[in-house]
């Protein structure tokens, strides 16, 4: 009975999110459609670069997506030659981890256009979240089965598995080299050398679906978690909490709180020294931009500095309509990548953030949902020729209303 309750809760969570992820360099976006097809777009031009349907024996509904760190590619034809005559290996984003309702994890390579590794026999229930280690070939996963697993991506084998909570675990993130945060009934800080809990944080009444470390460089984890800030967001909760790790202090309360007019469905942040910029996509499809300098506790909830909306222009025979923002990503060039419209043919656009104004309304053409147009676009997509085994990843149905965090 308890297992059924956990599964129902997981289905309810799945009804609020969509597996959609943007690479850290904002070059690619990937999405898993309700019929299980992986779709990869180039964000600069909105071109659908790949559509992939893995073989039927891998069939399971996708629950979450996570981009792996950049890696060196020594594939022939992919090396850049230095002026000195030496060979420099191209470094790019390639691997994507795909969590499923069956508890398995697929490692998909966009270079090969195929599944590179299948990690099974770890979880007995659906995968809730995935977290790559940025400096080695390992990944962490959590599940409704109450467990957290540390995987070796190369071999596809379990390195370590432990019980992380008395109930479902919804989100995980690394905050230091050997320290992991997990969210279940509460937020826990784990020592990965002893697999013991160093501290607990409490502050949400509902399940925390997103943990996000505030790091100056996400590709370089600090040696110690002490002093590290992180964010947490919960289902149907309009508040995003900011926490600071200090294991010597018993205080479990949050350091600051970002206040939203409605609950968020996607979060992204950039840190520059002590300044943190947070972009939050809300359920109604707006983007809220927060700008805050981390300097001790803040009593009053922090309000957004900028609200971004998109609407159609309307005309003689129509009135302006709001256009749904599906996702957003803070780019390295200080601009904001906005994905809007619909998941069949999303529109990608980078905008400058004008923090001197509290509101920004972008007037754009309303996305056209034409079956003939969709079929024409899909016909232009080149199917990867790496494998002859082209079947389906996740043919089950999944209902969702917002992007994955």
From TrEMBL:
Domain of life, source organism: Eukaryota
SUPFAM superfamilies given in the database record: WD40 repeat-like
Keywords: Nucleus, WD repeat
Principal location class: nucleus
UniProt KW rRNA-binding keyword: no
Compartments, record wording: Nucleus
Cross-referenced Pfam families: WD40
Gene Ontology terms: cellular component: nucleolus
GO biological process: one example: maturation of SSU-rRNA from tricistronic rRNA transcript (SSU-rRNA, 5.8S rRNA, LSU-rRNA)
Record bears the keyword Disulfide bond: no
Per-repeat ranges for WD: 120-161
SMART domains: WD40
UniProt name for this protein: WD repeat-containing protein 43
Organism: Magallana gigas (Pacific oyster)
């Amino acid at each position: 009975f308890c297992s059924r309750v956990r599964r129902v809760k997981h289905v309810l969570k799945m009804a609020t999110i969509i597996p959609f992820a943007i690479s850290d360099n904002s070059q690619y976006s990937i999405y898993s459609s309700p019929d299980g097809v992986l779709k990869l777009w180039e964000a600069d031009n909105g071109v659908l670069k790949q559509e992939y349907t893995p073989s039927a024996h891998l069939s399971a509904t996708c629950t979450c997506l996570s981009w792996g760190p950049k890696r060196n590619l020594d594939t022939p034809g992919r090396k850049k030659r230095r002026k000195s005559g030496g060979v420099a290996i191209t470094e790019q984003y390639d691997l994507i981890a795909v969590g499923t309702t069956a508890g398995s994890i697929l490692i998909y390579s966009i270079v090969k256009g195929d599944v590179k590794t299948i990690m099974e026999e770890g979880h007995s229930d659906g995968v809730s979240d995935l977290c790559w280690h940025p400096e080695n070939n390992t990944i962490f996963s959590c599940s409704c089965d109450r467990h957290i697993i540390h995987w070796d991506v190369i071999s596809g084998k379990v390195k370590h598995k432990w019980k992380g909570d008395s109930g479902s675990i919804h989100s995980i993130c690394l905050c230091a080299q050997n320290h992991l945060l997990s969210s279940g009934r509460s937020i826990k800080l784990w020592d990965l050398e002893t697999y013991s809990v160093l501290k607990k944080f409490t502050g949400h009444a509902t399940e925390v679906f997103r943990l996000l470390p505030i790091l100056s460089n996400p590709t370089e984890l600090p040696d110690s978690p002490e002093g590290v800030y992180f964010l947490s967001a919960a289902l149907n909760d309009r508040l995003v909490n900011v926490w600071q790790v200090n294991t010597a202090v018993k205080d479990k309360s949050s350091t600051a709180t970002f206040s939203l007019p409605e609950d968020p469905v996607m979060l992204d942040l950039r840190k520059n020294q002590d300044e943190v910029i947070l972009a939050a996509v809300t359920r109604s499809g707006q983007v809220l931009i927060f700008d805050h300098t981390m300097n001790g506790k803040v009593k009053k909830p922090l309000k957004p500095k900028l609200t971004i909306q998109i609407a159609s222009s309307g005309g003689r025979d129509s009135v302006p309509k709001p256009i749904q923002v599906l996702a957003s990503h803070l780019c390295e060039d200080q601009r904001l990548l906005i994905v809007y419209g619909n998941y069949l043919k999303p529109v990608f656009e980078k905008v400058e953030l004008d923090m001197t104004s509290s509101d920004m309304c972008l007037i754009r053409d309303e996305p056209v949902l034409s079956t003939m147009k969709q079929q024409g676009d899909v016909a232009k997509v080149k199917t990867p020729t790496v494998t002859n085994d082209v079947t389906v990843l996740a043919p089950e149905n999944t209902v969702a209303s917002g992007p994955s965090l």
